[in-house]
Amino acid sequence: MKKQTEKNRETQTVRMMSYFIDATTEIIKKEGIDKVTIRKIADLAGYNSATIYNYFEDLSHLIFFASMRFVKKYTDALPHYLEKARTPLERYFLIWECFCKYSFESPQIYYAVFSANLGTHPINLTKYYEYFPTDLVTFPDDLKPMLLESSLSKRTLIAFNQCISEGYIQETYAEKTAEIHYLIWNGMLTMLINNRTTYTVDEATEVTVNHIRNTTAITDTHMI
Question: Where is the HTH tetR-type domain positioned along the sequence (predicted)?
């Protein structure tokens, strides 16, 4: 009986969260992420503003959860990208190509998920997928730990695992290389957000992936 009560309570929590996330998502689609306010969300969801704080720490956390709805386009597309990979290294570059394409199409969204200030209580991506596990259904099992990691440098290290185990990348340089690749991506994202480049999404993706390729320390036995 106790377990059933807890399950019912959790179901109710997810249902209430979904009301507010759906409302936030709709505002983002119609007005843009910078136009989202607690009052607009509450009005659209049909609840008072105070109720929102029973389920989310603050507005930035709610925007984070709503933004994850848009990130699903990337997670759904990635398995199709990886079908083209013939080697672990190609697979790694395709992960970045897919991520760049979708993040550069919606730079504000990906900034909200991976770079924005979430206050004193940053959200672990695991928490989102605990509430909405179906978003992971089509994702490769060996890459699910990557998806649950909110730090892009750490995500890159996880994506490197197969390259390291099969001798494409020296483990000694993996952590520094992962950080470099994150900084390359973040630099392009920042330029797109601030309109400091005329690159199209495809051009920005190509340039970024080329920089990532050129800064990957490949072992002598796997030179390409």
Answer: 14-74
In total, the chain counts a number of residues equal to: 224
State the average pLDDT over residues 197-215. Answer: 97
The Cα-based distances of 151 to 6, 77, 118, 206 in angstroms read: 31, 21, 13, 23
Q: Out of 26-35, 138-147, 158-167, 194-203, which region has the weakest mean confidence (pLDDT)?
A: 138-147
Where is 95: in which H helix or E strand?
Answer: helix 88-105
Q: Does residue 209 form part of some domain?
A: yes
Please state the rounded mean pLDDT for residues 3-7: 69
User: Which of 25, 26, 24, 11 minimizes the C-alpha distance to 52?
Assistant: 24
Q: What are the Cα distances from residue 214, in Å, to 1, 93, 163, 219?
A: 59, 11, 16, 13
Radius of gyration of the chain (CA): 19
Q: Are residues 77 and 168 in the same domain?
A: yes
What is the distance in angstroms between the CA of the first residue and the CA of the last residue of the chain? 61
- Domain around 21: 1-56
How many Å apart are CA 186 and CA 108, to the nearest integer? 12
Enumerate the β-bridge partners of residue 169: 218
Residue 222: per-residue pLDDT: 52
CA distance 167 to 185: 25
CATH (domain of 190): 1.10.357
Model pTM score: 0.86
